[in-house]
Amino acid sequence: MKSNFCPGPFSRRSFLQFGGLTMLGMNLVDSLKLKAALSETPKVTRNDTSVIFIWLPGGPPHMETYDMKPDAPMEYRGIFKPIKTNVSGIEICELLPLQAKIADKFNIIRSVSHDFSDHGGGAKRVMTGRIPASPAGTVNDAPSVSSIVYKCMTEGGGFKNGMPPVVIGQQGSGIHANANGPAYLGGANAPFIVTGDPSNRNFKVQNLGVSREMETRLDDRMALMKGLDQFRRERDQSGVLSAMDSFNQHAFEMLTSSKVRDAFDLSKESPRVRDRYGMHAYGQRALMARRLVEAECRFVEMVWDDPYPGRPVPTDCAVNWDSHGVNCNIFSDSRWRMPPYDQAVSALIEDLVSRGLDQKTMLIVSGEFGRTPKISNEVGTKTKVTQPGRDHWPKAMSMIMAGGGMRTGQIIGATNSRGEYPVERPLTPNDIWATVYQHLGIDWTASFPDLTGRPMPILPFGDPIEELLPSKPA
Could you state, in order of their start, the residue ranges of all structural domains in the chain? Predict the structure, then answer.
């Protein structure tokens, strides 16, 4: 069945909103005041670390990326061949030659699994670290990691120079599109969402914290900018900033901070750097993520679905990573999708290392599950011909991790000879998040009250992955 997992683009007139708060009629100041009414938050013990999380919605195929099985029967292994990397004994798909050259700078995890095969259930399972109440749908009943990090970081010291601590970059505007809702933490802890394709020459990050009511009173974006310019001119003359309470101050700083505006402005990068990342949505979202962590954003999530939004998707390819035979020919889709993916991932990892950010910034690249080890053949919705594909498979998935001062050049875990399930070092998404929380200085065993007042642990189970921990303090 064709997936409806990825929503279409939002209105051109839409402003960058404070998560899903405008749906509640709340502006930035309202949300900050609501957030203060929530319960005590676990203390953050580190203020110098960050995370970049690359989300591959639809589920990337582990057998066409990082867990190839060249000795398996043809109906399992597919048509692509593994290639050697610069680490002895590690091989990855031939469609990832740039990553093969830097395999010493990242780790491959092959043994993460869970039990939710629907896109919604899988996304909620991965994004929250909890067993979702429903196996389908992307509206969370538990807060996403991004919302938990947001709450911990804002309670633990507020915004730095106006920079929001958590930012999500995606094509559409819905907070629930990829199971990033705050659930019982409330709308005050919804992450900031940047919408659109940053590789588009007309892309501009729109203004922060504007409610839907405010939008209807503005003729266009320029009207808001003129008002903000007036704010900036009067700031030093009137002393208005010092007169504001702390909530208004956060809102004001976010709206007027040149550091915030500059962090999102990719035009400040050289053409050479932008070309190295790739002039496509994957590459430019990766570059934006690097700029945001440099500007002291603590958690950046970038959604990589369609690499070329606004352009026609080839007839035998899919809009995201959902490579059923009804959606695409998985081999054609891989040939189309993997080059921009390979370019963007390798550029981001190399850039983090060259700038010395790899010690403090952790990178995770993952989807909600893997794909079925055995290939199925179905009639394509668009092509009208029988074509190979792989269906949903949460029993085995591959992901890569880098940075965070971790030891790299490793393979962690293994699946059986046909890529069906883990046979070494079985892990769950919770182990990934426990590693992330520890890196950020968040106690993942701490609790928040749910809507009934019951204490709900940040993670009900899971432990940091020992093989990924730094050999010495970062």
Answer: 21-356+366-468
